[in-house]
């Protein structure tokens, strides 16, 4: 179905639209559950009043000051990871072409650990993570470039960089004092605990800038999925499109990691789950972003409530779910 607005036209798939609406409804349900449940329950009807400053002081403290920043950060970080994973899986034409596997998340972790060891603040740790992600991406792109960047070469170089950076991270942890090592270890797990509006704003700003870029890139990236020669034959400028897409994916992964730590497997699983539900022949960016937001906030809600009053870092739960998903994916490919 084609929708034309002035000089622009957008092709919309009815099933993808239905899936998108369903994901929005599921995300809304998870958000309400996360805001209303907990040690002190807040009725769902009072949530809106609390958010607009018309509730009781206790409800406003719980909803507006404690729970809402965490939920919003989870939604935005999950969307950023899902979108970043969709970009790289589309570019590499490989379901394992995720920032988790091609070194970008490990590079962000290296930057964060270096700042922790140096005694930096939380803001400096976030900056270090973003810088580490960008520098790693530049290194991987440069090593993979041979008159252009092929998807398989980017994956292979990225896997090598990931292994090297994981070794560096382990070395840094062994050389840190026990307090710094404990702080770095907690950050490396990936968590939304204690996240406030200061963490949500940079991710929201990055999404506001980069989502339109991703929408503009969606059509040429679909062409790239058919191969460089076919894309060139249809008038696509392959390398500029690929470079801009990589830059957008790296920035999304970097700001998400800076806000919540290296939460694993969301960028890997969200695009593939979205593709299977929408039955799309390729990776769909919008559905991937929505799926990432639902996965991360749902996992964080479960991490808080399943073993209450004990709360798990969300990265522990996404690692468990993602590991199971990866095993199923590999088993299916084997058959």
Automatic annotation (TrEMBL):
Belongs to the binding-protein-dependent transport system permease family. FecCD subfamily. It comes from Nonomuraea coxensis DSM 45129. Its main location: membrane. The chain crosses the membrane at residues 12-35, 71-89, 101-118, 125-145, 151-173, 241-270, 282-299, 311-330. This is Ferric enterobactin transport system permease protein FepG. It is a multi-pass membrane protein. It comes from the Bacteria. The keyword Magnesium does not apply. Pfam families: FecCD. It is found in: Cell membrane. Keywords: Cell membrane, Membrane, Transmembrane, Transmembrane helix, Transport. PANTHER family: FERRIC ENTEROBACTIN TRANSPORT SYSTEM PERMEASE PROTEIN (PTHR30472), FERRIC ENTEROBACTIN TRANSPORT SYSTEM PERMEASE PROTEIN FEPG (PTHR30472:SF24).
């Amino acid at each position: 179905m084609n929708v034309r607005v002035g000089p622009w036209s957008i092709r919309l798939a009815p099933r993808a639209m239905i899936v998108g609406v369903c994901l929005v409804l599921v995300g809304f349900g998870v958000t309400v559950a996360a805001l209303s449940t907990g040690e002190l329950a807040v009725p769902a009807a009072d949530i809106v009043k609390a958010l607009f400053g018309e509730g009781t002081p206790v409800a406003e403290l719980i909803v507006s000051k404690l729970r809402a920043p965490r939920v919003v950060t989870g939604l935005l970080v999950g969307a950023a990871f899902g979108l970043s994973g969709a970009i790289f899986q589309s570019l590499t034409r490989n379901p394992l072409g995720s920032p988790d596997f091609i070194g970008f998340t490990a590079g962000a972790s290296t930057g964060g650990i270096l700042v922790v060891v140096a005694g930096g603040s939380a803001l400096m740790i976030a900056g270090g993570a973003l810088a580490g992600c960008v520098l790693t991406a530049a290194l991987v792109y440069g090593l993979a470039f041979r008159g252009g960047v092929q998807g398989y070469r980017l994956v292979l170089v990225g896997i090598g960089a990931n292994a090297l950076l994981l070794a560096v991270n382990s070395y840094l942890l062994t050389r840190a004092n026990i307090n710094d090592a404990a702080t770095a270890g907690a950050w490396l797990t990936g968590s939304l605990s204690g996240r406030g509006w200061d963490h949500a704003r940079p991710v929201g700003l990055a999404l506001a800038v980069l989502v339109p870029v991703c929408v503009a890139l969606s059509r040429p990236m679909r062409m790239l999925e058919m191969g460089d020669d076919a894309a060139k034959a249809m008038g696509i400028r392959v390398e500029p499109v690929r470079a801009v897409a990589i830059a957008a994916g790296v920035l999304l992964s970097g700001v998400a990691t800076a806000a919540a730590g290296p939460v694993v497997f969301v960028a890997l699983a969200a695009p593939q789950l979205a593709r299977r539900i929408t039955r799309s022949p390729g990776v769909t960016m919008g559905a991937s972003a929505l799926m990432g937001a639902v996965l991360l906030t749902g996992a964080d809600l479960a991490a808080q409530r399943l073993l209450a009053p004990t709360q798990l870092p969300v990265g522990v739960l996404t690692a468990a779910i993602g590991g199971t998903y990866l095993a199923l994916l590999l088993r299916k490919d084997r058959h």
